[in-house]
């Protein structure tokens, strides 16, 4: 069993660290708001530390699940950051969704300090984190992937090595591009069904087994119809993810016409005070007219 540090105990990190501890590893956690770290340690029996540097000193593997680019850089390389304090040969695994540039910066810093790094963003949402069935898209060297794989499998049902540093984040960008347009289509379809006076339970039973089926339809269709959005993956996190996708597309030349439109719709929801609602709240823009 390995010595693990887990940095960032939000909606995702808290249960992910819990699965690693449940597998028998020796886990020390850090969270910026220390009450969450104390609560995690009380629930799972691990240790907690006041800074990233203090949490990682003896760790073989250091996991990080925070927010945007500056948050990862602060936790990994800022004052009392993790990477300079890690022991040589240990692996830093970033589960946050951030830019490929940050993944490559961590990789370069890791080489300077003799630490291996992996970008390992996840998909599957709060439910996937809680039941330990996330999809993990990984960038980094073969040796780092091979040594960290058994620990990532504590919370990941599907862990895929995409290639070099940054390619895990690029795979996650594709995931988010595919979701953005789909949620707008689902919103338009369900709003159309309501306007047509259809029984939406019967509708979802019928079409969720056909060619229109999607994770969003199966997991969000009923709550979208009811107007329930107070859970799940926050609009403001999706805005961050689409910003990262659009910036990357400017570099590689891939057109993202639909993604750019949907990013504007999410900006509108956020400006109206719905930034913490689930991303399926896109339907709000259509139903508010009624
Ligand atoms: P969250 O619930 O908002 O939690 C964010 C965590 O990061 C908290 O522990 C927060 O500490 C910490 N944090 C943020 N900025 C920090 C900083 N500058 N320094 C130190 N700690 C900092 O977010 P989440 O939903 O768990 O998401 C975490 C990451 O996973 C994001 O990159 C997100 O895009 C990605 N993700 C989320 C989902 C989802 O469904 N939620 C799905 C896939 C991927 P405090 O407790 O002190 O605020």
Please describe what this structure looks like.
The chain has a six-stranded parallel β-sheet with strand order 3-2-1-4-5-6, with helices on both faces. Strands 7-8-9 form a three-stranded mixed β-sheet. The longest helix has 30 residues, at 167-196. The chain is of the alpha/beta class and 290 residues long. The protein has 13 helices and nine strands. Helix 1 (13-22) links the parallel strand 1 and strand 2 (26-30). The structure holds NADP nicotinamide-adenine-dinucleotide phosphate.
Key descriptive features of the protein:
about 290 residues; alpha/beta; Rossmann fold; N-(1-d-carboxylethyl)-l-norvaline Dehydrogenase, domain 2; 2 domains; 6-stranded parallel beta sheet; 3-stranded mixed beta sheet; 13 helices; about 15% strand; globular
In short:
The protein is of the alpha/beta class and 290 residues long.
